[in-house]
């Protein structure tokens, strides 16, 4: 501003604060060398001496004007320019006059003390040029540069009253007679408004009122300038600048005059849009000044804004927003921008509602655009739609969306309860509309209108940010223990549902987003009914898989993003979800998206399974336990059928770990899980005998997937209960001995490390003996011989088993190892026989311990004796070292 100690060209300042097109921004700030500038002045001085003006003189004028930011025009230079303009015998080119005006304007604005004689001479020249030479001509550039120069001269503090009056009279006359020139090009509006601003800051009452009349009436004239948000912003900042000058010069009479003429009983001929922006300019000045001495002025400005908002709300609510009149549509945009730029403003229910309507209908007009596309999908005018969308993306309204949202949230916070309910309903319904319609639009525009779809999603991304900030305001100021608990729960659920609808448009991680979710989830967790309401709002399995407009659940990214949101929230309140609801609503969707190609979604599905298996409610513990057992069987099938490729190993591993840790000891589901992993590992790995046992081959051509499953089995050795451990050890051993040498070394190495790091004193001795025997067997003989030696009656090797049977899995493992006579040895030599004997005795001992732990009154099975072993008198086998020293494991 003028009192900030720096020179300001008012037209440039207005443009910079109005976010208008770059095409009408300030002149190019070229910086020619001082030599070029000196040469230009010398050449123009030669024109005066030679009494001639050629084309190259015009070029030097342009160079000087383009150097406005660095150019200093002194009194001698101004006198030179006036002298050339006063030449009667020289015919100056028409395009040279705006350049002369611009240089004189630079002199007026940059010189600290202009010569009064030169000022008077300039005024005389301007009077002659405006009244005679260009009378009746339609030169827009001459008009706009002349207006800003006249205004600037009238603003000079020490200008003579005569020259000031002549300038103001000439300016007002030119505006009244040639206002239609302003509408010919929007790029010249800043110059006209700057001239009016200078004049308003210097004029007396008579010219002050005339200038105000023109400023607020020209928008309503038939051939006047077009209204636009950019022009409105320039009016806003123009009034702010003028008021600043009034206060700095202590012109209180002009402040009162502005209040009475504009904010008080304004004339019927004044444009409502211009009055609205002027009131916002007044508020902006007051808020930025930090003074409390303008209370009457503030009240007048706020009253005008509230009146406009109330009229808009009454008209908008009476019709469908899609058929709102263009005038009201534009006015609501202006109200949004004005509120955002003005700063602090008193709260008003009408203003809050109006801002909500404007944001949803004008700033983020997705619903209107979607309706155009879906109305006739086969006849989309792509060029026209794309142009409209891109124009909106570059508009002032869209660029100011963040500030508008802030002002809107402030108004919402202070609104009454009824208004808050209405506004919340508007926002939540908007979110659901965008979700459903964007799915259809994305399907229509897929592959053929990608640019249009990308631009639409840019608008939607900004709309998502607006919803986040609004939801945070709702969460902070509505979710209070002082309010009705039922209302709190309803609001919390609606926040989460709305976020799920907009999740597809979330591109960044926002702290406000996380805070709003956290607040809503904490509220929902307090009530089972709220949890149920949230879960049941999730699209059902039938809706997800129903083919509507050729939507498929696997390729519908918008729907997938929404389901992902639910899957991330559901584990946080899993304890409060009844078993029946989980079975009916969640389970089928969870299993469906386990097979999704999006890793995030698949992993989230496994997280839900883990959360449910780990949960427990005393009220329905039996039903929950039963459902857990049932889900495990399908979980293993669904997970393993997509592995490797779709199923993320980490997610599946966490699910299996949850099963082992949370289901009852000896559960058939755990036996089934172990057996399924073993069979999957075997199916991934086959040894081609014709290629040699040392060649590892896989169905997918990679050893890693099989290795991960075997590593999982190794980790389970320390997790499964002792009833399942014998079965796991036996099946893992059968798999390991089937591996070629390289594979055996990898797994045995991992087994050694795992056992060595174990701190379980109960099972570690057993695992050490088992591992020593397994290591020895892997180092001796062929895989086929060893495998046959490990086979136990009734339990074929995994390679030879048929389809799984739940009865077979549930059968106690001890029945296969109960007596000495049911063991079949088929080993080649004494050492091999003894190694097999040790391995089977380990499993046999574990089985007996399991039976004792279960309180079974069965007779303990006798120990298995090694083949051809001699016993002493007490029936014990004498201590012997049947293992070659080289085969012992080093611990």
Could you please describe the fold and organization of this structure?
With 891 residues, the protein is mainly α. It has 39 helices and 2 strands. A two-stranded antiparallel sheet has the order 1-2. Residues 1-5, 23-28, 687-701, 781-839 and 842-891 have low confidence and may be disordered.
Chain-wise SSE layout:
Blueprint: H1 10-16, H2 34-50, H3 55-66, H4 75-85, H5 96-110, H6 116-133, H7 140-154, H8 161-178, H9 189-200, H10 205-217, H11 229-248, H12 252-264, H13 272-289, H14 295-317, H15 326-342, H16 349-363, H17 366-375, H18 382-393, H19 396-399, H20 401-414, H21 417-445, H22 450-478, H23 485-502, H24 511-524, H25 528-536, H26 541-545, H27 557-569, H28 579-593, H29 599-614, H30 621-641, H31 649-662, H32 668-684, E1 685-686, E2 697-698, H33 704-716, H34 725-738, H35 741-757, H36 764-779, H37 783-790, H38 806-810, H39 830-853
Helix pairs in contact: 1-9, 2-3, 2-4, 3-5, 4-5, 4-6, 5-7, 6-8, 7-8, 7-9, 8-10, 9-10, 9-11, 11-13, 11-15, 12-14, 13-14, 13-15, 14-15, 14-16, 15-16, 15-20, 16-20, 16-21, 17-21, 18-22, 20-22, 21-22, 21-23, 22-23, 22-24, 23-24, 23-25, 23-27, 27-29, 28-29, 28-30, 29-31, 30-32, 32-33, ...
Protein name: OLC1v1019530C3
Organism: Oldenlandia corymbosa var. corymbosa
From the structure above, extract its key features.
single chain, OLC1v1019530C3, mainly alpha, 891 residues, 65% helix, disordered N terminus
Q: DSSP strand (E) fraction? A: under 5%
**Major sheet details:** 2 strands, antiparallel
How many β-strand runs?
Answer: 2
Which regions are unreliable across 5 or more consecutive residues at pLDDT < 50? 1-5, 23-28, 687-701, 781-839, 842-891
Structural class: mainly alpha
Order the strands across the largest sheet as they lie in space.
1-2
**Mean of residue pLDDT values:** 81
Helix run count: 39
Over the alpha carbons, how many angstroms does the gyration radius reach?
A: 43 Å
Distance between the termini: 82 Å
Helix content: 55-70%
| Dominant shape | elongated
């Amino acid at each position: 501003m003028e009192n900030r100690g720096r020179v300001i060209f008012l037209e440039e300042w207005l443009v910079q604060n109005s976010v208008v097109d770059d095409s009408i921004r300030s002149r190019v700030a070229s910086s020619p060398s001082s030599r070029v500038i000196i040469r230009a002045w010398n050449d123009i001085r030669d024109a005066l001496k030679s009494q001639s003006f050629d084309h190259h003189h015009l070029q030097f004028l342009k160079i000087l004007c383009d150097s406005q930011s660095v150019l200093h025009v002194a009194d001698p230079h101004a006198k030179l320019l006036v002298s050339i303009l006063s030449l009667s015998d020289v015919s100056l080119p028409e395009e040279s006059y705006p350049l002369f005006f611009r240089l004189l304007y630079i002199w007026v604005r940059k010189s600290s003390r202009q010569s009064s004689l030169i000022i008077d001479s300039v005024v005389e020249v301007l009077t002659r040029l405006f009244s005679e030479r260009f009378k009746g001509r339609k030169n827009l550039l001459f008009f706009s540069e002349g207006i800003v120069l006249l205004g600037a001269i009238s603003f000079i503090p020490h200008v003579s009253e005569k020259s000031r009056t002549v300038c103001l009279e000439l300016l007002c006359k030119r505006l009244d007679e040639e206002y239609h020139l302003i509408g010919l090009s929007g790029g010249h509006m800043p110059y006209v408004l700057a001239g009016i601003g200078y004049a308003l800051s210097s004029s007396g009452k008579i010219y002050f009122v005339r200038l105000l009349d023109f400023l607020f009436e020209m928008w309503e004239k038939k051939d006047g300038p077009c209204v636009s948000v950019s022009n409105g912003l320039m009016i806003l900042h123009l009034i702010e600048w003028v008021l600043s000058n009034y206060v700095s010069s202590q012109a209180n009479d002009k402040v009162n005059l502005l209040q009475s003429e504009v904010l008080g009983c304004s004339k019927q001929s004044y444009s409502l849009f211009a009055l609205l922006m002027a009131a916002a300019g007044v508020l902006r000045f007051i808020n930025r000044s930090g003074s409390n001495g303008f209370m009457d002025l503030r009240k007048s400005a706020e009253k005008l804004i509230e009146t406009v908002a109330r009229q808009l709300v009454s008209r908008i609510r009476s019709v469908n927003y899609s058929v709102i009149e263009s005038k009201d549509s534009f006015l609501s945009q202006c109200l949004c921008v004005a509120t955002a730029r003005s700063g602090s403003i008193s709260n008003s229910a009408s203003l809050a509602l109006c801002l909500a309507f404007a944001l949803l209908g004008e700033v983020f007009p997705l619903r209107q655009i979607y309706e155009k596309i879906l109305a006739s999908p086969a006849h989309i005018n792509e060029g026209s739609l794309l142009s409209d969308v891109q124009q909106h993306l570059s508009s002032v309204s869209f660029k100011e969306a963040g500030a508008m949202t802030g002002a809107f949230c402030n108004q919402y916070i202070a609104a009454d309860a009824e208004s808050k309910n209405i506004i919340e309903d508007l926002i939540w319904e908007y979110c659901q509309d965008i979700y459903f319609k964007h799915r259809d639009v994305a399907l229509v525009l897929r592959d053929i209108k990608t640019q249009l779809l990308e631009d639409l999603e840019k608008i939607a991304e900004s709309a998502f940010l607006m919803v986040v900030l609004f939801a945070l305001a709702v969460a902070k100021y509505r979710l209070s223990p002082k309010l009705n608990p039922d209302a709190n729960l309803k609001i919390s659920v609606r926040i989460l549902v709305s976020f799920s609808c907009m999740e597809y448009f979330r591109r960044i991680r926002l702290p406000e987003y996380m805070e709003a979710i956290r607040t809503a989830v904490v509220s929902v967790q307090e009530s089972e009914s709220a949890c149920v309401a949230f879960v049941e709002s999730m699209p059902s399995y039938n809706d997800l898989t129903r083919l509507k407009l050729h939507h498929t659940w696997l390729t519908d990214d918008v729907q997938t993003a929404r389901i992902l949101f639910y899957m991330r929230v559901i584990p946080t309140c899993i304890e409060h979800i009844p078993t029946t609801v989980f079975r009916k609503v969640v389970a089928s969707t969870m299993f469906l998206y386990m097979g999704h190609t999006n890793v995030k979604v698949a992993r989230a599905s496994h997280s839900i399974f883990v959360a449910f298996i780990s949960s427990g409610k005393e009220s329905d513990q039996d039903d929950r336990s039963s459902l857990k057992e049932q889900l495990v069987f399908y979980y293993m099938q669904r997970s393993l059928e997509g592995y490797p490729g779709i199923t993320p190993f980490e997610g599946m591993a966490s699910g299996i770990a949850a099963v082992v840790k949370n289901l009852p000891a000896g559960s058939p589901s755990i036996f089934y899980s172990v057996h399924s992993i073993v069979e999957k590992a075997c199916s991934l790995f086959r040894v081609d005998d014709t290629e040699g046992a040392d060649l590892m081959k896989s169905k997918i051509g990679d050893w890693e997937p099989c290795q991960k499953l075997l590593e999982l089995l190794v980790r389970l050795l320390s997790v499964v209960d002792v009833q399942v451990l014998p079965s796991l050890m036996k099946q893992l051993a059968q798999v390991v001995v089937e591996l070629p040498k390289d594979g055996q070394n990898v797994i045995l190495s991992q087994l050694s490390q795992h056992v060595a790091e174990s701190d379980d004193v109960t099972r570690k001795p057993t695992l050490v003996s088992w591992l020593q025997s397994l290591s020895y067997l892997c180092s001796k003989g062929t895989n086929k011989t060893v495998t046959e030696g490990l086979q136990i009656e009734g339990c074929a090797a995994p390679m030879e088993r048929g389809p799984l049977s739940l009865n077979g899995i549930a059968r106690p493992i001890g029945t296969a190892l109960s007596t000495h006579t049911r063991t079949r040895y088929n080993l080649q030599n004494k050492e091999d026989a003894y190694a097999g004997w040790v391995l089977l005795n380990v499993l046999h001992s574990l089985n007996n311990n399991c039976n004792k732990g279960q309180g079974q009154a069965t007779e303990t099975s006798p120990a298995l004796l090694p083949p051809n072993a001699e016993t002493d008198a007490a029936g014990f086998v004498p201590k012997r070292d049947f293992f070659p020293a080289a085969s012992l494991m080093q611990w």
